[in-house]
Amino acid sequence: MPDTEGIIMTNTSIKNPPELTAPQAKPGKKVRILRRPKMTKKAKPINLLSKNRGADVGSLSKRLGRLPHTTRSALSKLRKTGYVIMSVKSGNCKLTHNRITSLPSGQGA
Asked: Distance of CA 58 to CAs 1, 87, 93, Å?
């Protein structure tokens, strides 16, 4: 079992098992809290584009907090690294939805 000194478990479904109880914080000592790892800048658009419907550049830009030309650049870089991104116009709508259809060789799933 890894060293759990100074760690507080945030999952409320665990009823403080004895080996995972957090020690009492001493004055002047910081207590670390377990958190989910942050998503990288590359992982965010991959996650959004991997969904069944995909996403258009406008909604991607809004969700990522980027400008549209920066989002298009990110799509271009994903294509260069081997992701196959399919662009589809949906019905009478002028929006083009982009969706990842295959991963680069060497990556599973």
From this structure: 46, 14, 13
| CA atoms of 34 and 94, how far apart (whole Å) | 44
CATH 1.10.10.10 in the chain, residues?
A: 43-102
Residues 6 or more apart whose CB falls under 8 angstroms from that of 65 comprise none
The Cα 95–Cα 30 span in angstroms is 49
Structural fold of domain 43-102: Arc Repressor Mutant, subunit A (1.10.10)
Distance CA 67, CA 31 (A): 38
Each residue's pLDDT tens digit, 70-102: 999 999 999 999 999 999 887 777 788 999 998
Buried b (16+ CB within 10 A) or exposed e, 3-19: eeeebeeeeeeeeeeee
Looking at the DSSP assignment, which residues form a beta bridge with residue 96? 89
Structure confidence by residue, pLDDT tens digits, 32-54: 777 777 888 889 999 999 988 88
Q: How far is it, in rounded angstroms, from Cα 59 to Cα 62? A: 5
